[in-house]
């Protein structure tokens, strides 16, 4: 299982990268679920990643950009650096399949061809006036998108697990598996949720976090101590998975 950490600037980027995150995700947590950072920060991150890759002969992590909801996305999607692996746009107010497909088309047309558009579903879709996650996953699969992010729109501390419930989340995991979708589970996820997920056969390919990696809450700064705890836990999980695969 990979892990993603949302960062707001170059300082947090370097900190997260030093703890071995798989995906560094740029977003401004003070402004909403998927609010973008200043595109200049994307450019700096792309340069930093390129110098890190040159020094170590490999890219240790991938970069991801949050583009905001529709109106932000239209303004900034074309500024995402081509070296970013992923970008995502929030689906709020897209309450029909046609609206959502149009949103994805508009984003894909603006992004560099090398940047993969990730489909976003909100666990609290009623608050965001958008389609439920099951429909988003199905539509993404039909459109040939390979990745989905499940997150919360309202950042009040209600976790995705609480918004959807374990049983519904398990069915969503089964749906993702059957459609071959690589998905990230986010939305006030805490370290203590990991056991609960595994015990219930909820097996996202990636866990996305912000609040649980911060000093106090998701709008405060990333915490070295929290990142170390996550890094140690994810490292152990990867070692167990590698042993299982080998045996
Ligand atoms: O994409 C990941 C999100 O930034 C998760 O943020 P959160 O853990 O504070 O809900």
UniProtKB/TrEMBL annotation:
Domain of life: Bacteria
Enzyme Commission code(s) on record: 4.2.3.153
InterPro entries found in the cross-reference section: 4HFCP_synth
Pfam (any one): 4HFCP_synth
Catalytic activity field: 2 D-glyceraldehyde 3-phosphate = 4-(hydroxymethyl)-2-furancarboxaldehyde phosphate + phosphate + 2 H2O
Catalytic residues as annotated in Swiss-Prot or TrEMBL: 27 (schiff-base intermediate with substrate), 88 (proton acceptor)
Keyword Lyase applies: yes
Single GO molecular function: lyase activity
Top enzyme category: lyase
Keywords assigned: Lyase, Schiff base
Function: Catalyzes the formation of 4-(hydroxymethyl)-2-furancarboxaldehyde phosphate (4-HFC-P) from two molecules of glyceraldehyde-3-P (GA-3-P).
Protein name stated in the entry: (5-formylfuran-3-yl)methyl phosphate synthase
Organism the protein comes from: Stieleria marina
């Amino acid at each position: 299982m990979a892990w993603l950490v949302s960062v707001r600037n170059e300082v947090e980027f370097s900190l997260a990268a030093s703890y071995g995150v798989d995906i560094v995700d740029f977003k401004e947590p003070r402004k909403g679920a998927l609010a973008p950072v200043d595109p200049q920060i994307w450019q700096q991150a792309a340069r930093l990643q390129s110098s890190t890759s040159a020094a170590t002969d490999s890219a240790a992590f991938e970069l991801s950009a949050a583009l905001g909801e529709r109106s932000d996305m239209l303004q900034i999607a074309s500024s995402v650096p081509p070296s970013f692996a992923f970008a995502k746009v929030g689906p709020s107010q897209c309450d029909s399949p046609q609206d959502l497909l149009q949103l994805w088309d508009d984003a894909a047309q603006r992004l560099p061809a090398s940047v993969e558009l990730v489909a976003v579903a909100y666990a609290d879709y009623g608050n965001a006036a958008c389609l439920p996650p099951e429909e988003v996953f199905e539509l993404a699969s039909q459109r040939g998108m390979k990745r989905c992010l499940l997150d919360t729109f309202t950042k009040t501390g209600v976790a995705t697990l609480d918004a959807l419930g374990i049983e519904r989340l398990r069915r969503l995991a089964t749906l993702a598996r059957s459609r071959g979708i690589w998905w990230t589970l986010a939305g006030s996820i805490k370290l203590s949720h990991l056991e609960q997920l595994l015990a219930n056969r909820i097996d996202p390919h990636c866990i996305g976090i912000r609040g649980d990696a911060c000093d106090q809450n998701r709008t405060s700064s990333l915490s070295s101590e929290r990142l170390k705890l996550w890094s140690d836990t994810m490292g152990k999980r990867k070692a167990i998975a590698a042993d299982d695969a080998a045996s």
